[in-house]
Amino acid sequence: MKQSATAIWEGSRAEGKGVTTTQSKQIKNTPYSFISHFDDGQRKATNPAELIAAAHADCFTLMLTELLEEAGLIANYIETSAEVTIDFDSSSMTHSHLTVKARIPSISKEQFAEMAVNASETCPVSKLLKAEISVDYELISLIKLYTQINN
């Protein structure tokens, strides 16, 4: 199975703007920008680090749920946040920190800690953040772009 998303960008890094759309269209033409990293609380756009944090929190929570079910446990409530650290000097996302709070009947603190660490190491997004990256590329002419847009 493959899942996808598309990003469209116009302009410079600092002043440009873009939109992103996921395959499911649950995120559709959602604005993103470089400047949204800095506009504390006034965001009119998302950014790649925020989207990665959301994906990591979601993925971890699903993996933790799976591990709990394998142990015969069902959570009443799980809340996970992910905080992605960005080093702008090196243009790198250097760390993703997960924080999980849960209400799970009949589980010990030790068992929960073990499952949380296991989920953080085995969820697909954690693995992807360490994965090999590949790229396909095509430079399109303005004539081809004009034709695509106007047809």
Describe this structure in words.
- This protein has 151 residues and is an alpha+beta fold.
- The protein has 2 domains: 1-46, no CATH class; 47-150, GMP Synthetase, Chain A, domain 3.
- The protein contains 4 helices and 5 strands, in the order E-E-E-H-E-E-H-H-H.
- It has helices spanning 48-70, 109-122, 124-128, 142-150; strands at residues 5-10, 17-22, 30-32, 77-87, 92-103.
- The strands form 2 sheets. Strands 1-2-3 form a 3-stranded antiparallel β-sheet, with no helix packed on it.
- It is elongated.
- The two termini are 31 Å apart.
What key phrases describe this protein's structure?
single chain; 151 residues; alpha+beta; GMP Synthetase, Chain A, domain 3; three-stranded antiparallel β-sheet; two-stranded antiparallel ribbon; 5 strands; 34% helix; elongated
Content-based structural category: alpha+beta
> H/E element string?
EEEHEEHHH
What percent of residues adopt helix (DSSP H or I)? 25-40%
Number of domains: 2
How are the elements arranged and paired?
Elements: E1 5-10, E2 17-22, E3 30-32, H1 48-70, E4 77-87, E5 92-103, H2 109-122, H3 124-128, H4 142-150
Antiparallel strand pairs: 1-2, 2-3, 4-5
